[in-house]
Amino acid sequence: MKRVICRAAALLLAAALFLPSCGKTKKRYSVTYTEFFDTVTNFTAYCVSESQFDRAEKAVRDKLGELHRLFDIYNEYDGTVNLATVNRLAGDGVPVPEAIGDLLSVYGLFWYDTGGLLDPALGPVLRIWHDCREKGVLPDTDALEAADEHASFNRVFMSDGVVRFEYPDMSLDVGAVAKGYASGAAAGAARNAGVSDFVLDLGGNVLVSGKKPDGDWVVGVTDPTGEGFITKLAVTDASVVTSGDYQRYFEVDGVRYHHIIDPFTLMPATRYRAVTVICRDPAYADALSTSLFLMDEAGGAALCRKYGAEALWIRADGTISKTEGFSSYER
């Protein structure tokens, strides 16, 4: 763990954060983590003292560590029932911690609202794509179709804190929402520790709380072509999340294959280069960014209205569209 006092943090992937010099009554403190959710996380806060920041930083670190272990689908931990445990045993039913039940409840909302486009039960398909991305080869179509045979969230049952799969070969992958949920929980831990003016960037999921001494935080929306920023957003008490084809991908014969898989085609979605969402609820912001990436714009705009969110789409041809209220955040 590296701590940097009164220094702007480097943000990765989908967002960039711009911070001014230290305030007169509060100082800026920052810490960077690399051990959570296979990404880089930065927590930056304005505090009256380093000891105040230390308390909040510990609360954030502890909460992120807890949820990292709970939502891990690859590794199990002694004394912990996590998603890897669920994937191994849920054919028989597994009692799960509250956080896992809450996360799956968020998925239930969006699985229904998207007509099955956001589906955590796509785990077997996503694992094949993950392995092929690591090797730089395309998956076998028959293997994808076989993995998809039972991959549907309507075959996952939750009752009285127990998760059960209809078929034992099913598995969950919660990557579309886990970071957003975790950032919200970590932000709550920071506030409970007495710090309210901060930004938490969890691998490009940017959660903003309160203000800087001189005004709003400003978050940059990355141009997928690598040419700087499409726009900059002034936000407070909200999350900014981007899903894009430029974040995790590999190329075969000059064709890019990214990580956002359409459950109906079993292939990477092709409508957009990126979708950015602004929403007060960080878990919903994360769920919306992936959902909108998979949906047509009309359906995505309707979903934004339902959840009080705003969105920007960068289409595959580079053209841009926005919800009506998105421009009010632009600076």
List keywords for this structure.
331 residues; alpha+beta; T-fold; nine-stranded antiparallel sheet; three-stranded antiparallel sheet; 17 strands; globular; disordered N terminus
Number of helices: 8
On the 0-100 scale, what is the average pLDDT? Answer: 92
**Uncertain runs:** 1-23
Question: Mind telling me the CATH superfamily name of the domain at 83-165?
Answer: ApbE-like superfamily
The CATH class label of the domain at 83-165 is: Mainly Alpha
Distance between the termini: 33 Å
Number of strands: 17
The SS-based structural class is alpha+beta
Order of helices and strands: EEEEHHEHHHEEHEEEEEEEEHHEE
Radius of gyration: 20 Å
CATH topology value of the domain at 83-165: T-fold
What is the level-2 CATH architecture name of the domain at 83-165? Orthogonal Bundle
The helical percent reads: 25-40%
Largest sheet: 9 strands, antiparallel
Strand content: 25-35%
